[in-house]
């Protein structure tokens, strides 16, 4: 069975197109391996999120909401316990240093990300199981 991570747009597109390689969360995970990247139904409305959408192809991809948009291999979970550590990885997660939270954050580190044709599918919080038999046979 496949699993997915739901991410707001444009962050889902930025990850699947290699513009960012770390997704920031307030929680840690021991899971490793391939995850489908799901674009949530609600986009991030902050202008600083959209500043990274610099091409028409990224703009078009970032309009996809409420479904699977790509796949990536989760290879690590980095703890960010200080603002300095968080800021040092800004080129990889693309978040402003002010987004650091005093209780700390975690960076889900991805490799080999690639977009997939959009496939509508309901999302959930955290990492969730996803049942798409046709896609499973293509990716495994």
Radius of gyration: 14 Å
Mean pLDDT: 94
CATH class: Mainly Beta
Count of alpha/pi helices: 6
Shape: globular
Unreliably modeled segments: none
The number of strands is: 6
Q: Alpha-carbon distance between the termini?
A: 10 Å
Strand content: 35-45%
Based on the coordinates given, report the CATH architecture: Roll
Strand order of the largest sheet: 2-5-4-3-1-6
Counting helices, strands and paired strands, the structural category is: alpha+beta
Annotated CATH homologous superfamily: Hypothetical protein
Sheet with the most strands, sense and barrel status: 6 strands, mixed
H/E order of the elements? EHEEHHEHHEEH
Helix content: 10-25%
Query: What count of domains describes the coordinates?
Result: 1
- Oligomer classification: single chain
Q: Which topology does CATH recognise?
A: Archaeosine Trna-guanine Transglycosylase, Chain: A, domain 4
Task: Give a description of the structure.
This protein is α+β, with helices and mostly antiparallel strands and 140 residues long. The chain has one domain: Archaeosine Trna-guanine Transglycosylase, Chain: A, domain 4 (Roll). The protein is 24% helix and 36% strand. The chain contains six helices and six strands; from the N terminus they run E-H-E-E-H-H-E-H-H-E-E-H. Strands 2-5-4-3-1-6 form a six-stranded mixed sheet.
